[in-house]
């Protein structure tokens, strides 16, 4: 065999090996997808994952109660979820606390909810008070979702403080000043997404996720504008929150939960001065120019 023929066979062999490697990688990826889908697809495990989407840590006993299974059955499910790196576990004294492993996992779960909300044909399911509460305001892992979350996002975009596209988001210079005055600390402590739109499964519109979304929710809870509801991801809007959203974010919410915007233009430039210690920031001075 000539040297030229030998070189040609070697190149063909290398190309064949690359093709085999690519096929093997695709098979591994498909196998991993199947594994994750099977884990999330179990009713008990899906219920426990959903319970943890509020961002808090729960014990195996609490998650067993949520999923309506025994403590031992819940432990088996949780061990599989931890092994697949969907959950992390922290041991404190006699208890083990479970939480969503990362924002990436939370995004995957929320995306599944968005797809699951698209029903063809739609099924009639009577809505409960808890369903309505979740649609109004809820925590989505570590950020605000529901009607209130979408309204806050709309207001920030309308005031020119946030720029959102399907691919990502950006805090403008005025937005940095606004959120800093509001008390939302945007200094990054870890490597994570800074500002990004998240499709709301109930509203089918964007709310904010990433560091910006998390810090806004932290501040709303700190001010007492929103309160956590025990045993639920739902968040309750307080009277001070209703006043604060009206004054600071220009969002009016009547007693029936209907949203109205006081903004007359999508190009409003709103700047806050230093917030006062009052929870509702009623005495914060605003300087709004069209």
If you had to describe this structure to a student in words, what would you say it looks like?
Strand 8 and strand 9 form a beta hairpin. This protein has two domains: 97 residues, Winged helix-like DNA-binding domain superfamily/Winged helix DNA-binding domain (Arc Repressor Mutant, subunit A), CATH 1.10.10; 161 residues, no CATH class. It is an alpha+beta fold and 290 residues long. Helix 2 packs across helix 3 and helix 3 packs across helix 4. It contains ten helices and 15 strands. It is globular.
Overall SS class: alpha+beta
Total helices: the number is 10
Low-pLDDT regions: 265-290
Count of β-strands? 15
As for the number of domains, it is 2
Q: How much of the polypeptide forms β-strand, as a percent range?
A: 15-25%
* Overall mean confidence score, pLDDT: 78
Provide the helix percentage. 40-55%
Major beta sheet, specifics?
3 strands, antiparallel
Overall radius of gyration: 24 Å
What is the rounded distance between the termini? 82 Å
Give the SSE string: HHEHHEEHHEEHEEHEEHEEHEEEE
Which outline best applies? globular
User: How are the strands ordered across the major sheet?
Assistant: 1-3-2
List keywords for this structure.
single chain; 290 residues; alpha+beta; Arc Repressor Mutant, subunit A; 2 domains; 3-stranded antiparallel β-sheet; two-stranded antiparallel ribbon; 48% helix; globular; disordered C terminus
């Amino acid at each position: 065999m000539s040297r030229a023929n030998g070189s040609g066979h070697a190149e063909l062999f290398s190309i064949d090996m690359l093709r085999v490697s690519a096929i093997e990688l695709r098979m591994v990826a498909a196998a991993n997808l199947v594994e994750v889908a099977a884990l999330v697809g179990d009713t008990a495990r899906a219920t426990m994952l959903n319970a943890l989407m509020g961002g808090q840590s729960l014990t195996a006993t609490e998650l067993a109660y949520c999923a309506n299974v025994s403590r031992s059955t819940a432990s088996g499910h949780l061990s599989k979820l931890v092994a697949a790196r969907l959950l992390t576990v922290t041991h404190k004294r006699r208890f083990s606390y479970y939480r969503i492993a990362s924002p990436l996992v939370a995004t995957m779960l929320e995306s599944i909810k968005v797809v699951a909300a698209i029903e063809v044909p739609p099924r009639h399911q009577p809505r409960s008070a808890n369903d309505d509460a979740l649609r109004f305001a809820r925590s989505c892992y570590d950020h605000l979702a529901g009607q209130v979350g979408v309204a806050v996002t709309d207001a920030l975009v309308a005031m020119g403080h946030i720029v959102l596209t399907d691919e990502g988001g950006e805090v403008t210079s005025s937005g940095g000043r606004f959120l800093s005055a509001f008390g939302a600390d945007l200094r990054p402590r870890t490597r994570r997404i800074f500002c990004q739109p998240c499709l709301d499964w109930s509203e089918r519109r964007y709310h904010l996720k990433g560091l910006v979304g998390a810090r806004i929710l932290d501040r709303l809870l700190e001010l007492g504008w929103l309160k956590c509801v025990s045993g639920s991801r739902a968040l309750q809007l307080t009277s001070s929150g209703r006043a604060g959203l009206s004054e600071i974010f220009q969002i009016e919410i009547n007693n029936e939960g209907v949203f109205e915007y006081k903004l007359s233009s999508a190009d409003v430039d709103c700047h806050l001065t230093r917030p006062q210690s009052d929870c509702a920031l009623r005495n914060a001075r605003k300087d709004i120019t069209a």
